[in-house]
Structures are given as C-alpha cells and as structure tokens.
Write a structure and sequence with these properties.
Number of strands of chain A: 3
Number of domains of chain A: 3
Strand content of chain A: 5-15%
Largest sheet of chain A: 2 strands, antiparallel
Oligomer: heterodimer
Shape of chain B: flat
Distance between the termini of chain A: 100 Å
Distance between the termini of chain B: 111 Å
Helix content of chain A: 40-55%
Number of helices of chain B: 3
Radius of gyration of chain B: 26 Å
Number of domains of chain B: 1
Order of helices and strands of chain B: HEHEHEEEEEEE
Strand order of the largest sheet of chain A: 2-3
Radius of gyration of chain A: 46 Å
Structural class of chain A: mainly alpha
Largest interface: A-B, 51 and 51 residues
Helix content of chain B: 10-25%
Strand content of chain B: 35-45%
C-alpha cells in the first residue's frame, strides 16, 4: 500500500507523464480513492497553468536572427560549391558534369605524362641507384682495385696498364679517387671489407665488374 | 556517379597503357668464358703473347669485346645459356665454378634495361649489382677462381623494346700503305 506522502512526491511527474507505467497506474489508482491527493493534484495543475500564463511570448521574431547567425558561420567548401551549383538550377547539373570531365581529362594527361610517371615510380623499383653503363667520364678502361686480402690481389691494374685497344693507347687510363671507389663499392653492395673493380668502355657499351673477393 | 566511373575507367586505361611494356619478353643471354694467362711471366714483363681465342666466341662480336677489355692470352667458351623473362620476373643461371646468377629485369627506359643481378655461392649472396644495360651493350663479371683461372660471365639482353644501335665495336684502322716507288738500281748494276 502506497502512502499519500509517497504519492504526492510523484504528482508532478505524473501530471507531466514522466513516470514508469506501473507508477502511473499506482498514482492513478490512488488519486481516485484519495481525496487529499486528488486535491493536491488539482492544485498542482492550477499552479502550472498560472505559471504558464505569466510567461509572455517573445516580442521579437528570432527566426531571421538565427538564420543570419547560421549564414555567418563558416561552411565546408563542399556545401558552398554545392549551393553555388544548385543556384543555377538545371544548368548547374551540366556545369557539374563538365567540370568533373575536365578534372578527369587533366588527371589523365598528368598521369600519362612520362615525366610524372618517372617522378612517381622513381628511377628504380625498390632498389638502390643503378650503376649506369655510361659513366660520366668516358675513358677506357677505368680501373681501380681495393684489396682487402693481400693473398688474393685483384688484377685489373694489370689489365688497365697494358692496354690492348686503340682507345687506351691514346688516352691514359684514369684511376678513380678513393672516395669514388668507396661510393661505388658501397653501391655494389660489397661493403667495406670487400674488393670491387669496375671499368667501362663506352664505345662498345661494355662494362666489366670484378666479383668481390670471397672469404 | 557517371563522371566518377568515367574517371576510374580513364585512369585504368592510362595505367594499363603505361604498364603495357612490362609484358614484353626480354631474352637474357649469359656466356661463361674461362680466361687465363698462358705465361704469367709474359704479363710481368709486358711481352706480347699471341691470343688464343675460342672460335665460338667470334659470334656477336664477343671476341672483339674480350680483346678490347682484357689482356688474357687464352679465352675458352665454357657455357652459353639464354632464358626469356619479363620486367618484374627473374631468371637464374648456373655458372661454372658453382656460382648461381640471378637476373631480374626491372624496366626498359631510354633504350636501356634496368636490372638487378645477384650472384650466389650456395645460399650465400656474394654480390648484388643493380645495373642499367644499354641496348647492344654487355656486362662482364670477372670472377677469379684460381691464381691463373678467371671466369668471365658476359651478360647481354635482347627485346622488342631494346633497339641495338649500329655496331659500336671499333674496327682497327690500318694505316694506308703508300704506293711503292720503284727503287732505281745503282748505275753499276746493269740489267742483263
């Protein structure tokens, strides 16, 4: 059995319809049988009506002010473009199609450009810079040797110092500097403890590479 | 939605066209030559030694290249192999001396074949060489197996996209022989 004090606490939510269904049922059954609670409910309703009557409606229409504030707020560029296009009506759809086609054409031209492809793909495919067979200074033969193990000295110096071709006879062989040797040795993946020798004959597009010493 | 489809199809067509060359076959040819000095003392003393060239090396100007690049006195063709591949693929060759050569063509650009080479001794990689081979060009790997035994691995490539230039092996120019003037006989020698 629910007491009147408990019911009177629920009258406000009951009048606003905010109670759970079983609570609504309990309060409704109680106020039918209890005159005091029924009177309290009537007072509550009369008080609500009196309060609502004291509130005056706003004198100013807020709609234009709210719309103006909304218009002043920053909008995403997509919405702006969309609104701009829609302002043209049916012509706007044609503008949309033409502009997208133009963007497609520009993208196609850019992608088909070999320079762009080279830029995107890079000079190699996941590999270190390529050793080109046309070295900047075409001399024949370019030879150098860096030996790590005296027991197996490489012999390109012999090959270069006894030229057997007319080019070498007219041009003295050039020996790469130590830094260039080191760079190329690193490029060949030989590391610091290996020997590498390379020489190039640009007229025949022939390049000779000595396989590094094996331990 | 339609423009997006058009864009996607266009991009696909362009990409397919740009990658069309990747399927072009590339023939990799590997020739293994054994070279040695007939007389090492001749090398030390810079003496001229006649070169003994395997007649099979005269094909494709390989003997001329060898003479141009080296000064060994004997060259013998040990093995000639070739295999077809494409850019993005890889082929392997068994080299004399137990080494294995992997050749991976990467791309053909500016009449040059970019490729990646790796030489293995068993399962150990002893050399990796990214290289750009000109059309008609040749890469020679020299591997010393003994004090006087060298294996030269000559690598060349052919393909529809590789247009070999005109023969670039120079022909030695012989000096022009001046016309021989008759030598006047001395006055005291009278013909019969």
């Amino acid at each position: 059995m629910v007491s009147c004090s408990e019911i009177q606490l629920l009258l406000g939510p009951f009048d606003d319809g905010e109670l759970e269904p079983h609570e609504m049922q309990d309060v409704a059954l109680h106020i039918v049988t209890c005159r005091d609670c029924n009177a309290a409910l009537e007072d509550y309703r009369a008080l609500g009506v009196a309060l609502r009557n004291t509130v005056r409606p706003p004198a100013v229409d807020l709609t234009p002010a709210v719309l103006a504030r909304l218009e002043a707020m920053p909008r995403p560029w997509r919405h702006r473009v969309r609104a701009f296009i829609e302002s043209f009506g049916r012509i706007g759809t044609a503008i949309e199609v033409v502009s997208l086609a133009a963007v497609t054409a520009v993208l196609t031209v850019v992608i088909a450009n070999p320079a762009v492809q080279k830029l995107v793909k890079g000079p190699t495919h996941d590999s270190p810079p390529l050793l080109t067979s046309s070295l900047p200074r075409p001399v024949a033969p370019i030879a150098f040797a860096r030996t790590s193990s005296p027991a197996r000295r490489m012999t390109p110096a012999v090959a270069s110092s006894t030229p057997v071709n007319q080019f070498a006879a007219t041009e003295p062989p050039e020996v790469q500097s130590a830094s260039a040797m080191q760079d190329l040795a690193a490029e060949l993946g030989a590391g610091d403890s290996q020997s590498v020798a390379v020489w190039n004959e640009p007229n025949t597009h022939t390049t000779v590479v000595w396989v590094p010493d094996q331990p | 939605m339609l423009p997006l489809w058009i864009a996607a199809i266009s991009v696909g067509i362009v990409y397919a066209a740009s990658d069309a060359g990747r399927d072009q076959p590339i023939k990799i040819q590997v020739e293994s030559i054994q070279a040695r000095y007939a007389d090492t003392s001749a090398v030390a003393l810079r003496r001229s030694v006649p070169v003994r060239m395997d007649p099979r090396l005269n094909q494709s100007g390989l003997s001329d290249r060898l003479r141009l690049m080296f000064d060994y006195s004997e060259y013998q063709l040990v093995r000639r192999q070739s295999a077809n591949s494409t850019c993005g693929g890889a082929v392997a060759f068994n080299l004399p001396g137990g080494h294995i050569l992997h050749v991976a063509p990467l791309a053909v650009e500016d009449n040059e074949l970019a490729m990646d080479l790796a030489m293995f001794e068993g399962d150990r990689m002893i050399m990796r060489l990214p290289f750009r081979l000109s059309a008609g060009g040749m890469l020679m790997l020299v591997d010393q197996h003994a004090p006087n035994r060298f294996y030269i691995t000559a690598i060349s490539a052919e393909g529809p996209q590789l247009r070999p230039q005109a023969s670039v092996v120079p022909v030695p120019q012989m000096p022009a022989i001046p016309p021989v003037e008759p030598i006047p006989l001395p006055a005291f020698i009278q013909p019969w």
